Amino acid sequence: MSYHIVVCGGIVPDPLQTLEPVMGPAGPSLKNETMLPAVLDPWAAHALFEAANLARNFAGSKVWLVSLGPKAKLQQVMMTVAQKAPFELVPIDGPAGAFTDPVGVSGALAAAIESIAGLDRQRLLVFGGWESATRGAGATMQMVGERLGIVDQFQGVDSLAPREDGSFEILERIEGGRHQVSVCAGPPALVGWATGSLPEPRNNPQVGMLNMRTIMPALQKARAANVAGSAPQFLSVTLPRQQRSTKVVKDLSTDEIAREIVAWIKED
Questions:
Q1: How many domains is the chain built from?
Q2: pLDDT tens digit sequence for 227-259
Q3: Is 233 a member of any domain?
C-alpha cells in the first residue's frame, strides 16, 4: 500500500511578533505586514509532519504541500520548512492572513489539488490543520473536501494508524474532552489534524537541498489566485480592548452572578 498525501498549509506571521490590525486602502491588514517574518501555520505543520511520517513508512508514497500566500513570503518560509520533510511544493500566489474568506481559499486549494499531475484519487489522503493560527474558521478543510468530492472527513485528529487491510484507525477529538475512535475503509479521505503525536523533525540540510530543486521552479510558475470573491466587508479592525473590573461580593447565587456577567458584557 502506498499513498498520495496532499497537505494544505498556509503561512502566518511569526506569533512572537506584535500583530496590530489596521485599515488600509485595499481593506484590513496587519501593520507593517510585509516586514513581518512568516512561518508555516502550526496546525498545518503538524499535518505535514504526520504526512511525512506516513509516507516514510509506506514505500512508494509521495507528499505534496499546497500553500497559498505571496510568493516572496512562501520562498522565505520554504527555506526553513524544506529541511523538515521531503515534499513537492504546489504554490498559489495570493493573499494570506486572517482577513481572507474560507470559501475563496478552499476553492483555490481544491483547484490546485486537482491540477497536480499524476495524482491517484484512489490513494489520495488530504491533510491539513483542523483550524488555523490566523483564520481559525475551522471550515476551510471541510470545504476543500466537499469540492473534491471526499465524503470521509475527520476533524480534530490526534492519531491515524493504518491497518494491514488498508483501513485506518483514527483518534478524533469530540466534545467534553473525550476522543472518538473511528475506522475508515481507506482512501480517499480528508484529515484535519489537531496536535498529532509527533515532535518537530530536526533540520536536515540534504533534504532541504533536494526539496529546493523543485521548490524554486514551482514558485516561479506559481499561479495567481483571487480569493476575495464574495468575502465579507470589514468596516473596522482593532485590537481587543483590555479591561479589568473586579468586585468582591459575598453570598450571591449563581443565577445572580450570571445576570451580572451578562449585564457587564452588554455594556461593551
A1: 1
A2: 766 566 666 666 666 667 677 778 888 898 899
A3: no
